[in-house]
Amino acid sequence: MAEPPPPPQQVRFGIMGCATIARKVARAIMLAPNATIVAIGSRSLEKAVSFAKENGFPATAKVYGSYDAVLDDEEVDAVYIPLPTSLHVEWAVRAAQKKKHVLLEKPVALNVKELDAILAACESSGVQFMDGTMWMHHPRTARMKEVLSDPQQLGQIKTIHSAFSFAGGPEFLKNDIRTKPDLDSLGALGDLGWYCIRAILWAFDYELPKSVTAIADPEVNDSGVILSCGASLKWQEGGRTATFYCSFLTTMVMDLTVLGTNGNLHANDYVIPVNENDATFYMNRINRIANYAYSLGNPAREETIATDLPQEALMIKEFCDLVGGIQGNGANPEKKWGEISTKTQVVLDAVKASIDNGFKPVEVVY
Q1: Are 162 and 63 within 8 A, CB to CB?
Q2: Any idea where the Gfo/Idh/MocA-like oxidoreductase N-terminal domain is (predicted)?
Q3: Hey, which bits of 197-277 come out as E strands?
Q4: pTM, 2 dp
């Protein structure tokens, strides 16, 4: 009988920070077959100890009272950085300079200039970069892309709408880092708008819009941090447009709707699927008005895509596959993830520029 294949080589992770999102990613690292946690660092040793214990870290994981200690640990191959956005450029660059592969929480930077510095450091050191946009790695996403890429399904895609919002509540609005100008000055635009913009670009095969116009009068807090905003995007050819809305002030929604000349596609939980083990999307085709009443030429088609691992663990697995290729086979880092992050950041920057410039159209330059 043939010997079973050896287990995959595990990429050794250090986690820099104890943010709430790090709980989900730490679990994902432990679920992924090719990853393990070897270190956790925080500005407070006590906080790092508590975080490791509460989240069931391996007994061998080292606990540090600084971020530098994680970067200095020779057993750490890669780092996950869930720090406030204002700290990303400093610590991602330091990580790359220490030859650590970088999985960076989104939004990846306050602006594209900062992201350029991060990517330049990663390229100089030959390390892999990826942002933490989890839904990109779910098999449902790949299946939806197959549908969008088949002209027999939706026809020509004409417009897209994306929305991501949740009602943060008084405590969140007062104390969460995403509402603090010195920590995450982009507010809802950075935290939630990132997903909306990424989804739109993904659906249009990452072709950048010609211009972006922010919707007037976004809601901001007393410090000027955006709590709720939206924008419209316009492409050069084909009459293509998109809109998005993001907010810390309205009920939870995670909608993506793609409208084509022959049909439409809709996912109502595209950011975080309702179920870990599967995710659903819907299609309608040949819609028409008949006898002054809306009718469907064909009933809605529902597709549910199963997965053995939650999307965050699939993200870790894909990242570690790339890191393993670099470490074990001398492969070059995959640059597409940096390019996708850059295009997302460029559009986000244009939305912010339109807000700052009185909601005038801003040309998107890449």
Answers
A1: no
A2: 11-130
A3: 211-214, 219-220, 226-234, 241-247, 253-260, 263-267
A4: 0.94
